[in-house]
Amino acid sequence: MSTPDIRVEKGHAEPEEVAAITAILMARAAARPEPSATHRARAKAGWRRLEREGGFRAPHSWH
Q1: How far is the C-alpha of 22 from the C-alpha of 29, rounded, in Å?
Q2: CA 45 and chain centroid, separation
Q3: How many alpha carbons lie under 13 Å from residue 54 in its C-beta half-sphere?
């Protein structure tokens, strides 16, 4: 006997309910996310190259 792909941990789910949630999960997995219009690329990288920085920063400096 094969193990089920979805298991009900608490309570009792009818076969129709399990089929409905399986269909929803499969549809979500197959859907491709649309590119977001609000996403903007950064003007500067979020990381820094340490070899291009000064060797010392004072502990009281803001930069």
Answers
A1: 10
A2: 21
A3: 5
